[in-house]
Specification:
This protein is of the alpha/beta class. Helix content is 23%, strand content 27%. The protein contains six helices and 14 strands. The strands form three sheets. A seven-stranded mixed β-sheet has the order 3-2-1-4-5-7-8. It has a five-stranded antiparallel β-sheet with strand order 10-11-14-13-12. A two-stranded parallel sheet has the order 6-9. Strand 1, helix 1 and strand 2 form a beta-alpha-beta unit. Helix 1 runs parallel beside helix 2, helix 1 packs across helix 5 and helix 4 runs antiparallel to helix 6. It is elongated.
Length: 295
């Protein structure tokens, strides 16, 4: 029987492993390599390990001395380069977009920020250039706004579960995994994001800022701004009807509604309903003073 190894991280990795077990195909797994991510609130490493132990699946952590002996290796949410012999014919990648759109990093976050109405995932063979490999399978899902990144991850995890079943059935039956090259002329790229990219640009319109706040929230750090010299994280916000502001100084509080500040944006208004100081994690609501500027 052809077997597979998995490189798993985050909720998506956990949900894929859960689906493989529930689909009765855990015997196909030769090894699970578990990765950890300190940049998110919950990386699901312990949950993946626990599931391996319950299902009697061999597992190791990323820093351990492991070797891949299976016909295929499958990477889910993996952040690091993988040194696997003949990787381009053996390594299978799950990617959070309908390739060739949004090749690269943080594709799901960037799709939400851009307001895409259709999300999806692609299964592809590894390539020496990231996300350029031949596509094995794809699945799409429609969404509506507002939607948080947590909700989007849940939707994509369900897509991954469908895709892994279709892939493993073929492997189990000894079938060749057929693939097709991407249409290069349709390719777009998604850049990596760092702490600077969490900062809110109050000159954008309120709808864009709302999408941004929702897209970088839990399990990520949350959109950032400053009150004076203190960094704050804005976790939830609501759109408010716009009014005419003759001196539209973006980031200033214009109203207090239900003890929540309403902020002037480049176009539109945004009411902050949940947020905390970066260092103390204490809520900054209600504000200490009305005349507050978020910068």
């Amino acid at each position: 029987m052809n077997k597979v190894s998995f490189f798993l991280m985050t909720r998506k990795g956990y949900k894929v492993l859960q689906a493989v077990r529930d689909q009765g195909m855990a015997s196909l797994i030769d090894l699970v390599v578990v990765g950890r991510d300190k940049n998110i609130s919950r990386d699901y490493a312990e949950e993946i390990i626990k599931l391996c132990m319950e299902a009697n699946i061999k597992w190791m952590e990323r820093g351990d001395d492991y070797s891949i002996r299976s016909v295929y290796a499958i990477a889910i949410s993996w952040r690091w380069m993988l040194d696997i012999p003949q990787a381009q014919s053996r390594l299978i990648i799950f990617h959070d977009s309908l390739l060739p759109k949004y090749r690269g990093f943080a594709p799901l976050v960037n799709q939400l920020i851009q307001g895409e109405m259709t999300l999806g995932a692609s299964v592809l063979f590894a390539h020496q250039e990231y996300d350029k490999g031949n596509i094995i399978d794809q699945e799409k899902v429609g969404i509506s706004y507002p939607i948080t990144i947590d909700q989007a991850i849940s939707r994509i995890s369900q897509v991954y579960q469908k895709l892994i079943y279709r892939i493993l059935i073929q492997i189990k039956e000894g079938k060749t995994l057929y693939s097709a090259p991407q249409i290069e002329s349709e390719a777009t790229y998604s850049l990596w994001r760092d702490e600077e990219d969490y900062r809110i640009d109050w000159t954008q319109n309120a709808e864009e800022i709302k999408r941004f706040i929702d897209a970088v929230g839990y399990p990520y750090r949350g959109a950032s701004s400053c009150i004076g010299d203190k960094k704050v994280r804005i976790i939830e916000a609501e759109l408010e009807k716009d009014i005419r502001v003759v001196n539209r100084d973006c980031g200033k509080v214009i109203f207090m509604r239900e003890e929540m500040p309403v902020i002037v944006c480049g176009k539109g208004l945004l009411k902050i309903s949940k947020g905390h100081y970066e260092e103390s994690k204490e809520s900054f609501l209600p504000l200490k003073k009305f005349r507050t500027r978020f910068s």
